[in-house]
Design goal:
With 476 residues, the protein is an alpha+beta fold. The chain is built from two helices and 21 strands.
Amino acid sequence: MSRSMRAGVRRPLAVAVCLAVLAPGIALAQTAKERELEARVAQLEKMVEQLAAQQQQAQSQIADTQAQVAGTSTAQPTAPAASLPPGPDGKPQQPIQPGSITPAASPGTAFSYGGFIKMDAMVTDTSDGRITDGSAGRLFYVPGSIPVGQEGADGGDAYTDIHAQFSRFWFSADHVTDNGDKVKAYIEADMFGGGSHALAGNEVSTNTHALTLRQAYVTWNNWMAGQAWSNFMDVNALPDAVDFLGTTDGTVFVRQAQLRYTEGPWSFSVENPQTTVTRYQNLSPDPLDPSKARYNSGDNVMPDVTARWLTKGDWGHFTVAGLLRQFKVGDETDSGAAVSVSGKFNVGENDDIRYAVNAGQGIGRYLALGLGSDVVLDAFGQPRALTGYGYFASWRHAFGPKLRGNLMYAAAHLDNDRMLTGYGVTERSQSFHANLIYSPIPKLDLGAELIYGQRFLEDDREGDLSRLQTHIKFSF
């Protein structure tokens, strides 16, 4: 065999021998990779199983929560929202939220909150001495505070007062039961009160003032119990004034505790009694100072009783009210009665007329912020009811959507028995008011009002007041 042939045979043989030697290693290598892959697949399967278990658990929790929510909704149905009280501008208020915000409230109770911030600034000039600093007459128009006939005194220079005490807020909770019963709780307060510490209530440093309760009552369908405006007072006839009240002289103005029932156009109430008394002139420590000759009596047994009839429409409203009273001083009594006619009449889209006429025996503390007394004592200590009457009229005109103005006149007359009261008591008062109120944006009022008031005594002495009052008021 030649050398070339032997070399050709050797090469395939060498390849075969190499393959035989390497084959077990290749087999072993493939087996290791497969095992590694199988381990990774097993690990991935385990992770998938864990994810599936977690997803199933989450779905079970969601189902349980939905079932609990459904059960709560079934057990506590939401009652329809009740009608809310009108705000300071007379427009309906919207609830803060559709549902209850306190866990103790009945389900479906609607809460509302409102009020206004008001700053008053006024310059006053009085003819017969200055109104006492810090008194109510320095904060708003009070006809009984106009100085008259102070010996050796004159008004001197005008004086300025600035305050924010009539800022106000209110809370209301309204609820309608499943049976359709309407329940309301309402509370209202302002800052027109005295201070609670040494620096409170003065104008030296802090100007702090205590919270003052204005109204606090609960209603249940036709019934109302608590402190509110007297049923003898027509709040809706009050004029659009910059002053706290405006036509004070001729206005019935009383808030007090009462129980009231309303049915259709009729309303009836029994209210807290109180009697203002003028002493017999010979027993007065100072006949020329009516504040020293008067005091209050809480001896009454019978509450004040009122009745009112109201009709209203797009044209405005008209109402008539009656008042029956008992007066008791010690063991002695007398009685009295009064009537009130008032309303508001719309004249076109931009004008309205507001008015009231109030008269009767023993109307004293209800009229003109107590300008006169309910009774006077005779020489034997027997109370005698005093007759009085008052009236006002105001014209309101809107010059446009942002500017409006008001003209007002008010008067009060007291029929005193001079033989019993003497000549140092008030016989009558009157006032004129003119204002302009500008609202650059909704709910913000910038107002200015001119006021001229007079008070006359039975001995013909007279004192007058001139005032320019301005305010900035934002309602919310």
